[in-house]
Structure prediction request, 117 residues.
Amino acid sequence: MHLPSPRFRPLPLGYKVIGIVLIACFLLIGLVGLILPIIPGLLFLFLAFYLLTRVSQRASAYAHSQPWISRHMRQMDAADKLTIGERVRLGLLVVARSAVNGIEWCIAALKGDGKRS
Prediction:
């Protein structure tokens, strides 16, 4: 079943500037996270791309043309129905789980039990 891609809604200039600053911060954290496994680098890179789809019409069209990205973006869009408090809790849970995965990876690497992937 093919769902129609959501219509791109341009943001006001103030929101675009805030979005670009957040994108830069998430990219920086994501790149550091690729080097340090305790920081969930891929999560922050995905968040940067998600924000980019809210700022750029080209990025939005590209994201919705890719099945894997489109599926995950629909999941992120489902969070629009959550309250702010629920969104913050969900975000903290995702970040906490990613940090635990990073710590497990570090412990496995230090033990050398070959659990790393």
Observations:
- The helical segments are 13-35, 41-55, 57-65, 67-78, 84-111.
- The radius of gyration is 16 Å.
